Amino acid sequence: MTEGDLNNSVKPWRDDSRMDEEIQREPTAAERADTDLQTEVEVIRVRRDDYSFDDSGSDGAPEAESEDSDSEESEKAMTRRERFRLIRQIVLGTILNADSVRENFRYAIGLAVMLFASIFMLFTSLNLYLRYMKLEREVHLLRERAIRMSEQKYENSSHSAIVRRLRERGIDLQDPQEPHELLD
């Protein structure tokens, strides 16, 4: 291979036209917030360094304690700022521009779909359970009605009921004097 072939086969890390586009495009609100946050952190760090050089005659212990308390305060301020920035991004919708959110967006959509499917299944099963309970009550009422009707049928078809009805009509029923024979 010649040297020219090697130069042609090696591709640049980034495309030049793409770099020009990145330089020309305006930063998004999230990028501006990130740069503002980084600037604030740098200012706090520089201020802390400036104060540490002002103590010329003190011993190292109070300076270390003040640095620890300054670092804790700055960390608390950072977490408050980060929380505020996150809430602001969520409210404004600029969080969708963040790379981490873009990468995991399909997982969030999947979770949302599963959530709605779960809610749908919950209400469907509740509806079917209520329908089942209603049908079970109807079956119970029908069984009670069937028992009452069979009691009435037995009362109306018993021997004494038949004799009583025939007497009401004026017909006299004569029972046989011999015992009954069962027919198989």
Explained architecture:
The longest helix is centred in the C-terminal third of the chain and has 59 residues, at 99-157. Residues 52-58 have low confidence and may be disordered. 0% of the residues are buried. With 184 residues, the chain is mainly α. The chain has helices at residues 3-9, 16-24, 29-54, 60-92, 99-157, 159-169.
Radius of gyration: 46 Å
Number of strands: 0
pLDDT average, as an integer?
77
- Globally, the shape reads rod-shaped
What fraction strand? under 5%
* Helical residues, percent: over 70%
First-last Cα distance: 113 Å
Report the sheet with the most strands, covering strand number, pairing sense and barrel closure. Answer: none
**Poorly predicted tracts of residues:** 52-58
**Number of alpha- plus pi-helical segments:** 6
SS-based class: mainly alpha
User: Could you spell the SSE succession in H and E letters?
Assistant: HHHHHH
